[in-house]
Amino acid sequence: MRELDLDFVDLNAKLLLREPFSLFENFLAEQLLKRNSKRFANYNLNLQEVVLVNFSNQIMTPSHIFYAQGPVTYLLEDAIRELPLTLRFIGTVIKPLLKLAERSSLKRALCDAYVVANSKYCAKMYEDWGIKVDGIIYPPLDCEQFKPTTSRPSSDYVLAYVGKETKYSLLRQVVDLGVKIKAFGSKALYVPKHLLKHPNIEFLRRVSDEELIDLYSNALFTLFTFTHEPFGYVPVESMACGTPVLTYDRQGPRESVIDGMTGWLANDDEELVKLALKIWREGYPPWVRSRCRERALEFDVKVIAGKWLDALKRLKDGQRVALDDLRQRLKAQSSSTSSRLELQEGSHN
What we know:
Blueprint lengths: L20 H13 L1 H7 L11 E2 L10 E4 L3 H8 L5 H25 L4 E4 L2 H9 L6 E2 L21 E4 L6 H9 L4 E4 L8 H4 L4 E5 L3 H10 L3 E2 L9 H8 L4 E4 L14 E4 L2 H14 L4 H10 L4 H18 L4 H25 L2
Parallel strand pairs: 1-2, 2-3, 3-4, 5-6, 5-8, 6-7, 8-9, 9-10
Helix pairs in contact: 2-13, 3-4, 9-11
């Protein structure tokens, strides 16, 4: 990163909860206490010499460029449908307040920023909140790392990702039909007991990148069920390893997977289950794997880096950001934070 003249700011956030609950802990701490934005305001940045790019939806602070990856409350809204009753009730009760808080803080922080979304679907979410999106740049993948490990895949299992957005009810339907699944992922809010004990599914939990690439490469196809996905790395990773993807014809994955060429896009749960069984029994033509690789290369880090350079050039040429105003807002935020810290320290004396 130093070679590219890029620096990361470490906020040293200390989280009490482990993933995936840490995401919501961090989100609540920012929305209710402004924890991350207060820490960030203490950094002495010369905004005449740097371009500030915010890649986090956990820091609501003014920036030159904001990379929009989806409001957290949209994830919560979709994810709670698959949670146990108690967590579903809590999520339903607090959801309206959290959505209002997130929307307000985003509009304040992004009023002067050049906003880049990570997908067309993601852009629409922000535009529905009245936030102008200036461009779309998909997340990058290192296709030199993610590539097929074999020319003769075993194809004796289906790979599935298990995370906070997984649709477990659908996984159950697929394995009940006799489809053998290997599932990876360590960010699940919970996994139903009936799936943990199912003979047709093997839960691998967290795996290394090397193990994951080999799992992708040898799978017959990757099954990507989700409740909410602004972009979705799993489909692109799978295609980079030459393996087609079965997922829904909606949200982020519909922008990366080409139906009938690099995978299959189902309109609903019923169609997805039928397709999973059909592909498991009948397979697909050999050329599909090479087409998957070709498609994934469109998301390669070198391609995406070029798009970011173009965006930075447009930003500079168009003078889209009011730097003086941004500088004053950061300075005011820093002064406000310092005053609060002085008061808090005085209260302990």
